[in-house]
Design a protein that fits this description.
ten-stranded mixed β-sheet, mainly beta, globular
C-alpha cells in the first residue's frame, strides 16, 4: 500500500540479575508465578527509527497544494437526478452555511497533497489537491478513500490541525500545526467510479494536540432517522460559479434524508447501507442551496458529537436542482476503520505482530506479521525479571508501548517512547498485582476511544481500569465475578466487526471458548452474555495481538502442546463462525513461555 512508512522499534534490553527458579513452562502462557523472580526490569536501550519530513518540506508540500486546483478522486461517471430529468457528472465534494471557529470543531483537519514530478511543465503531471478530515485519535485522521487511494501521502502530504483559517499562499499557519503522514489506509473495496466504501484513515508521523472526536457506533440507527439534524464542517467551495474556497471554517446544518428519498434522487448511484444523503434539494443555483462541495471531501457530518458521515460525492458544481450531498455511512464502516485507528505494532505497518519470550534463556523476540505467516524472529535481548508482557498503545501516539509485570513485587509498569526527549520512559502504573490471575490490554473497552486495562483478581473479579490516554487510569470499575473459571482471557480489538472491543475466554473445566461481545460501556454492562464459539482442548497457549492479517478484523493465535502455532483469521461474525479455517504459522513455539 502506498504511503506506508516503516517504523522499527529495535530494542535491546540488559537485565543485571537473572531469575532463579521460574517455571520453565506455563500451561496457559499468560501469567506465571511471581516467586523467586528477578528484581530488575528490562530497560529499552535503543531508540526507534522514525522518518519524518522536516517542517520546511511539509510547508513546501502544503504551499504546492495551495497553488494547485486539482481535485482528489476525479471521475467521469454521470448521475441521473430526479427520474432522469437532469444528468450531471458525479464529483467528489459548503455552499451556504456560516463561518465558525476551530473551538467549535477542534478535531477538524486540513489535508494538503502535492506531488511535484520535477518536470518543466508543472501543469501536465504535478498533482495537488485539498481534502478535509477529522482527528479521531492523536495520530489518526478519518477521511474519504477518494482522497487517499492512489496517492502517496507519506511522500507528498501534509496535515494542518488547530486552526479555523485555511492555509493561504503566504504560508501563514494561523497558529496551526503541520504534521507529516506515516502511513495510509483506505477501504480495500473502495470503488473509484461509484465512490462505494469511501472511507480512509491517515496515520500521522507525530501526535497532535487537537481534541479527537468519536465515530458513531455500528448499531446507531437514531442518527440516521429522516429529519435528524446533522452538522457539516469544511473549507470547500463557497460558490458553484467559481473555484474559490472558504478562507475560514464553515458549518451548515443538513437534515438527514431517508434512503428512499436518496434513491429517488440518485437511483442506483446511491448505495443503501453504505451511503447516507443529507440536506434539502438543491435549487439549481447558490441561492437557497446549502450543500457540501469540492474541498469538503473527507470532512465530517456530525450528529450528537459523533461522526455519522464522511463527505463523499455529489453532482458537479454541487447545486444541480434536486441534488443532495452524499456521505459514507460511518456506522457501516466503524468496524473496519477502528482497527486502523488502534493499530500500533512492532514494525509500524497495518498488521499486528507477535512478541514471544524463550522460557529457558528469557530472551525476547519480535516476529513481524506477513499476513498469514510470520517473518524470522528478531532478538530483543534479555527479558528476565517480568512475567507479563503486553503490547499496547496507552497514550495513542501510534508507537508500540508495553505493559509488563515485575516478577518479584508484582508491580505493573508502562514502557513507552517519548518523542520530545528522544528516550524511553518506564512508569509504574500499579502496585502489587502479584495475585492478579489475568491482565489484559484489549484497547478501548468503554467506548471513549481511550485504551483501557483489565485484570482479574484472586477472587475471580474482573475489573476495568479506564484509561485516560496518558498512561494513567481512572478508578477501577467492577465488571463481575466468576472470571477465574477461565484459564485464558485474551483480547486486542474487535472480533465481531462492530467497532467495539471484545473478549475471548477459555473455560478451565471443559476447554470451551467463549466470546464476550463488547458493548462500548463500562461496569457490569461492558460485555454481552457470553457466546460459545469453539471447544479447544488441544491447545495450551493463546494470544490475541490484534489484526494479524491486515484485513481489519481481529485474529487469534493458539499453540498445541507439541509447539505448533495456528493462526485463526477473524471473520467479524459474532457466532461459532467467528474464526476462519486455521493456518499453521510454525512448529517451534513450544520454547516460548510468554506471548505478548
Amino acid at each position: 500500500m502506498s504511503g506506508g512508512g516503516r517504523h522499527r522499534r529495535r530494542i535491546r534490553i540488559a537485565v543485571p540479575v537473572a531469575a532463579a527458579g521460574l517455571a520453565a513452562a506455563v500451561a496457559t502462557a499468560l501469567l506465571m508465578s511471581s516467586a523467586n523472580a528477578a528484581t530488575a526490569l528490562p530497560t529499552p536501550t535503543v531508540k526507534p527509527t522514525v522518518s519524518s519530513p522536516t517542517f520546511a518540506e511539509l510547508k513546501e508540500r502544503a504551499l504546492g497544494a495551495v497553488a494547485s486546483d486539482g481535485t482528489a478522486g476525479e471521475t467521469t461517471r454521470k448521475s441521473t437526478l430526479s427520474a432522469g430529468t437532469t444528468e450531471s457528472n458525479i464529483d467528489p465534494k459548503i455552499i451556504g452555511g456560516t463561518e465558525t471557529t476551530i473551538s467549535t470543531a477542534p478535531w477538524m483537519a486540513q489535508l494538503w497533497y502535492y506531488d511535484d514530478r520535477g518536470t518543466p511543465d508543472d501543469d501536465s503531471d504535478d498533482r495537488g489537491f485539498f481534502c478535509g478530515g477529522s482527528v479521531v485519535s492523536p495520530t489518526k485522521i478519518l477521511t474519504a478513500a477518494h482522497c487517499v487511494k492512489g496517492y502517496d501521502w507519506s511522500a507528498n502530504g501534509a496535515v494542518l490541525t488547530g486552526t479555523s483559517q485555511l492555509l493561504g499562499e503566504d504560508g501563514n499557519l494561523h497558529g496551526g500545526t503541520l504534521t507529516g503522514v506515516r502511513r495510509q489506509w483506505n477501504h480495500t473495496s473502495y470503488g473509484s467510479t461509484t465512490f462505494n466504501n469511501d472511507i480512509a484513515v491517515l496515520t500521522l508521523a507525530a501526535p497532535v494536540t487537537a481534541k479527537p472526536i468519536r465515530m458513531t457506533t455500528s448499531g446507531d440507527t437514531t442518527s440516521y432517522a429522516a429529519g435528524t439534524k446533522g452538522t457539516l464542517y469544511g473549507w470547500g467551495r463557497i460558490s458553484s460559479t467559481n473555484q474559490d474556497s472558504a478562507e475560514t471554517l464553515k458549518t451548515a446544518t443538513l437534515p438527514i434524508q431517508s434512503d428512499s428519498t436518496c434513491t429517488g434522487a440518485y437511483g442506483s448511484d446511491f448505495i443503501k447501507g453504505h451511503m447516507v444523503c443529507a440536506g434539502t434539494p438543491a435549487t439549481g443555483s447558490d441561492t437557497g442551496t446549502t450543500t457540501a462541495c469540492n474541498g469538503d471531501s473527507g470532512g465530517p457530518l456530525i450528529v450528537k458529537d459523533r461522526i455519522v458521515g464522511v463527505v463523499s460525492w455529489g453532482v458537479k458544481n454541487c447545486v444541480t436542482k434536486g441534488a443532495y450531498s452524499v456521505f459514507s455511512k460511518v456506522s457501516t464502516y466503524v468496524g473496519v476503520a477502528s482497527p486502523r485507528v488502534d493499530d500500533a505494532n512492532l514494525d509500524g505497518d497495518h498488521k499486528a505482530d507477535l512478541w514471544v519470550r524463550n522460557a529457558s534463556s528469557k530472551e525476547g523476540f519480535e516476529k513481524d506479521s506477513k499476513g498469514t505467516s510470520f517473518a524470522a524472529r528478531e532478538s530483543w535481548g534479555d527479558w528476565d525479571g517480568v512475567n507479563v508482557v503486553l503490547q499496547t498503545d496507552l497514550n495513542r501516539d501510534g508507537f508500540q508501548d508495553f505493559v509488563v509485570r515485575d516478577s518479584s513485587a508484582g508491580g505493573v509498569y508502562w514502557m513507552h517512547w517519548v518523542s520530545s526527549s528522544g528516550s524511553w520512559s518506564t512508569k509504574q502504573i500499579f502496585d502489587d498485582w502479584t495475585t492478579r490471575t489475568r491482565i489484559v490490554a484489549p484497547g478501548d473497552v468503554t467506548g471513549d476511544t481511550l485504551p483501557d486495562l483489565l485484570s482479574v483478581d484472586s477472587a475471580g473479579v474482573l475489573w476495568i481500569y479506564p484509561g485516560k490516554g496518558t498512561g494513567s487510569f481512572s478508578a477501577r470499575v467492577k465488571v463481575g465475578s466468576g472470571w477465574n473459571q477461565y484459564n485464558s482471557l485474551r483480547a486486542k480489538g474487535d472480533f465481531t466487526g462492530d467497532g467495539k472491543t471484545d473478549l475471548i475466554a477459555r473455560s478451565r473445566s471443559n476447554s470451551y471458548v467463549y466470546l464476550y461481545k463488547g458493548t462500548g460501556k463500562s461496569g457490569s454492562a461492558a460485555f454481552s452474555s457470553r457466546v460459545k464459539v469453539r471447544e479447544w482442548g488441544g491447545y495450551n497457549a493463546f494470544d490475541a495481538p490484534g489484526d494479524v492479517t491486515g484485513d481489519g478484523k481481529a485474529d487469534f493465535l493458539a499453540r498445541t502442546p507439541g509447539g505448533t502455532l495456528y493462526l485463526y483469521p477473524g471473520t467479524g461474525k459474532a457466532t461459532s463462525e467467528i474464526f476462519a479455517t486455521r493456518i499453521s504459522v510454525g512448529t517451534d513455539f513450544k520454547q516460548y513461555d510468554i506471548f505478548g
